[in-house]
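Let us practice reading a record.
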Amino acid sequence: MGGDHAPEAIVEGAVLAAREFNIPLILVGISHRVHQELEKYEDWKKLGIEVEHADEVVEMNDSPSKVVRAKRKSSIKIALDLVKKGEASAFVSAGNTGAVLAHSLIILRPLKGVDRPAIAIQLPTSKGSTILLDAGANVDCKTNQLFQFGIMGHAYAKYVLNNDNPRGALLCIGEEDSKGNEATKEAFKLLKKSHINFTGNIEGKAVYRGDVDVIVCDGFTGNVALKISESLAEMIGVGLKNLFTTGMTTKLSYMLLKPHLAELKKKVDYSEKGGAPLLGINGVCIIAHGSSSPKAIKNAIYRAHEFVDKKINEHICEDIENNLDGKGSLWQHLKEIVAGSEDDLHGSSQTSEDRTDASKK
């Protein structure tokens, strides 16, 4: 029921996904409205599509905290409950992102070893694509959360996008190791000591060059970067349209370039990716754009199917556990950070034995 074009676009996208990918689906919402849309498609009953009734709908401008308290029979909550109970394998929504985040944390809970989930978006680059996370789930992030984002992004790129050795980087104000705030500086050290292929810091001007496959940042920075990118793409689109309609010569040029422009449009079209996964929760959750078309919903459903089929959550848990098993250099570095903090707190008079005790704590 969520999104700018719901339920029409959502139902059509579900029908397209069921036809093309043979995926059984449950549509959760106001049942009579959902059935009205389904009746437009003669074959829907043969496609393995079920309808689960929900009394309430979360509007796009609803406060997430109020939704959690007041709308306990919403389509978002009921759909996530189905995933928790094992009656569904994944959740897809183009609705209120804040409400999806809040309910996901409460109902599905974070994975073991994950403090906070992150929204991972796939950006086009000159060499293919790159994953950026977090794109808005966490405004402020701690060092360990940035580290976990790096591990989760690595798993996404490796097991879903089939990149055997994805290159990771921290989005920062400079490429030097010493640049950034305290959280990014410490995250740099942790990621450098981890098992992933961490290449260091990357500046905003290099995001679309394609030199790295995973870009880590806090949700505030990531969301601002995403919205600026969307605005730039819109401006370029308007500029090209104006350019190719100024006269007969430019119109002729457009006809010659049309196939190539179509390829470029497909590369930067968000609907080709479908939606962004919410990584780090105990279940598969795909957040689609509020203005999603039926094509975008279809692809979001397939992305959810991929995450289930390739067991992405199991890989994330394994990767985090491998880095925090108490034996590797990363764990040792975490102890050094704690010991250093204790030294700063208690002063230089602290004995070696005292520092060892502090490290254990």
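A brief commentary: DSSP finds 13 helices and ten strands in the chain.
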